Amino acid sequence: MTKINTTLTKNPKNLPPSDKLGFGQYFTDHMFVAKYREGQGWYDAEILPYSPLALDPAASVFHYGQALFEGMKAFRQDSGEIVFFRPEFNYDRLCEGAARLCLEAPPKELFMEGLKKLVEADERWIPNGPNTSLYIRPTLIGSEGFLGVRPSHETIFFIILSPVGSYYAEGAKPVRIWAEETYLRAAPGGLGAVKAGANYASSLKAALAARQKGYAQVLWLDVEHQGIEEVGTMNVFFVMDKEIVTPALNGSILAGGTRGSVIQYLKSKNLPIVERKITITEVIEKIKSGELKEAFGTGTAAVVSPIGVIHYQGKDWDINKGETGPLSTQIFTEITSIQRGTKADPFNWITKLK
Ligand SMILES: *Cc1c(COP(=O)(O)O)cnc(C)c1O
Questions:
Q1: I want to staple 125 with a disulfide (CB 3.0 to 4.6 A). Which of 28, 159, 287, 296 is the partner?
Q2: Ligand 1 atom 10: the closest Cα is on which residue?
Q3: What PANTHER family does UniProt report for this protein, alphabetically (predicted)?
């Protein structure tokens, strides 16, 4: 395997207060970087002090958007053990995304070794307060400088780390969301099923407009403005009288790891989880009839984010009176307890650092 060199910082930063971390505001002392060039393979893999990258201004990431990322977490459990939550899932998804974006994915050993060495170097940064964790951002970019339109022959893989608290400033309070009928996040055949930076570029304007109108997130619909896809940067679940529904993966929905964990957990409890198409019309009808009990988003950052209000065509529709529902609470508690090591891990989701 490509050897990983380590250069530790001479100027370690002060740790931020663990009750004021927020999300993605602080970065640790180090980063991992590895480079790939066609014909040469992976080279210059290193842990080094967190610092700006030097890139050719003609690099394909700037002009043609060859950028892909992952989001995962490490935890300091009460026993002192440092653990990762489903790192293999994130590696596999990175490989799928790299194939879609014509970038080179790092070999698995390089990914895992780089990750472990980096987290070891920055171990003191892993917080252990309530709802805190170390958020991990592996990223792949096309780094070759050229202006013809074709896949970059060079890739840079880097990992940065950010100690985080709750994703939402409001805590676990249900969010108000805006069903979006003008902008699309992703379309069939596009990049929606992979964690491409371009999907986020596509989403910013609608998210900003929603925020200005007093809604925390956008409820993304399909090209027909009917099929529900995702909520903000999360997958979405609807709890109804007879079934729990999450939109089936249709090629423009991102297959979240948390989505998979929630499905696995619900199945283990023999709860009726169904992956199928669900439209905004059906959701509004089931709110009207009282059949819709709860709705929530799922993602690594927030784990479970309850939805209190859906705005659709000029009207606000309350869900569960705007309160967090029992199933949302149960799932959040179950997954975070496994992450924190206060509950056994029957699903094999946890990987120890050492
Ligand atoms: C990352 C992401 C998710 C959630 O995925 P997790 O693996 O659960 O964090 C959902 N939707 C989009 C668009 C995403 O980028």
A1: 28
A2: 234
A3: BRANCHED-CHAIN-AMINO-ACID AMINOTRANSFERASE, SUBGROUP IIII AMINOTRANSFERASE
Whole-number Cα distances in Å, 334 to 7, 157, 255, 266: 39, 33, 20, 11
- Which domains does the chain carry? 4-165 (3.30.470.10), 175-340 (3.20.10.10)
Q: Is the CB of 300 under 6 A from ligand 1?
A: yes
Q: Is the CB of 87 under 6 A from ligand 1?
A: no
Q: What is the pLDDT of residues 141-181, one digit of tens each?
A: 999 999 999 999 999 999 999 999 976 654 568 999 999 99
Is 256's C-beta closer than 6 angstroms to any atom of ligand 1?
yes
Q: What is the pLDDT of residues 327-341, one digit of tens each?
A: 999 999 999 999 999
Strands 217-221 and 175-179: parallel
